[in-house]
Amino acid sequence: MNQTSLIYQYSHTEEFINGFTHLLGIILGFYISFALLSKAITSGQYGHIFSYLIYGASFIALFASSTFYHFTREPKLKMILKKVDHICIYIFIAATYTPIILIKFHSPWNPWLLILVWVLALAGSIYKLSAKNRNVFVSVGTYLAMGYVCMLAINPMLEVLDKTSFYLLLIGGISFSIGVVFYLLKKVPFSHSIWHLFVLAGTIFHYLSINSIVN
Fold this sequence. Notes:
82% of the residues lie in helices and 0% in strands. By secondary structure, the chain is an all-alpha fold. α3 runs parallel beside α8 (191-214) and α7 packs antiparallel against α8. The protein has helices spanning 12-43, 46-71, 75-104, 109-130, 136-148, 154-160, 163-184, 191-214.
């Protein structure tokens, strides 16, 4: 099978909206990175700076790879960008955990949970690079599993997070989960654009949670 045939063919209008919705994410990523890093640099907290650099860079990379993928028309380049886009999802999920765990968690779970999510991100990235016919349900399943692996440390998490931070995290996770339904409904017009909007919403809620934790 030709690898380029594995790319679902959206209409030109759909692809424009797909790309535009995540172009907004790039702009949002720069704003969020600046906002978080400014606070961390002012306070001189190097651990915060490190975690925000990882989070901010992965945020921008996630939306940039998606935007370029949807705006690109050349089939071979589009196939490469699709892999990069999906790998960036794994990295971004792990990067979202990073500031929360490093800044707020102070328990025996701290290093192990952080190691676990980054190992899963690495494993998922290798899978995306090596598997020729990637199963969409395997990909989606691993994304969701990474997102909800925090449930392994639900008790320590409830002890250290205030209600606002916790509920913002939860709403963000629910937003991603609902969006997955539209991601799988590829034949429904503009379903992928709707998925993108849920991704944007989820990332905003998670940023607000991280910002609440810091404050």
